[in-house]
Specification:
With 162 residues, this protein is mostly helical. The protein has 2 domains: 30 residues, no CATH class; 114 residues, no CATH class. The chain is built from 4 helices and 4 strands. The strands form 2 sheets. Strands 1-2 form a two-stranded antiparallel ribbon. A two-stranded antiparallel sheet has the order 3-4. The relative contact order is 0.12.
Length: 162
């Protein structure tokens, strides 16, 4: 048994309660496996949408840095460009996951089914999440390296331009 908020008064009530003890709102009898799977799928969809927004913001910031002539700090342009590419791959994978959610009734169904762009069903849903997260973190690490390598103060691999 777990607790959920009442949709009317936000009082914490049992998932097995038939009515809210505070406001009297009728509740469903019990959370079924189908409802739980659908709720997990909705959470995955919302989570992925927020990630896509984050990826877009980061890619725009990095692209603006690449386009600028002068910057407050020095960075390696090639590594920052690679970072933008990784972030775009993460957004692409997130888009595949988010756009596929409407075709399934549970996260487990999405996880086990091969999905992909257009009609190309190349990876199972679970693996698209791995692609999304791996590409995102590869982009972040590459961006950090571009800053560290851009100024030899931290890594003596390249010299700071004067």
């Amino acid at each position: 048994m777990s607790l959920i908020p009442c949709p009317s008064c936000t009082n914490q009530i049992s998932t097995e309660a038939t009515v809210c003890p505070r406001c009297g709102r009728p509740m469903r009898q019990a959370v079924s496996g189908v409802d739980t799977g659908l709720e997990q799928l909705q959470l995955l969809f919302n989570y992925t949408k927020s990630h896509i927004g984050l990826y877009t913001t980061i890619a725009i910031i990095f692209a603006a840095l690449l386009a600028s002539e002068k910057s407050v700090f020095h960075f390696h342009r090639g590594l920052l460009l690679m970072s933008v590419i990784f972030i775009c791959v993460a957004g692409f994978a997130g888009g595949i996951i988010a756009s596929s959610c409407a075709h399934f009734t549970s996260r487990n169904d999405l996880w086990a089914t091969r999905i992909g762009p257009s009609r190309c069903k190349c990876l199972e849903g679970e693996y698209w999440t791995y692609v999304e997260h791996t590409a995102f973190w590869a982009g972040i690490v590459t961006a950090l390296l571009s800053v560290l390598i851009g100024c030899s103060k931290w890594l003596p691999l390249a010299s700071c331009p004067a």
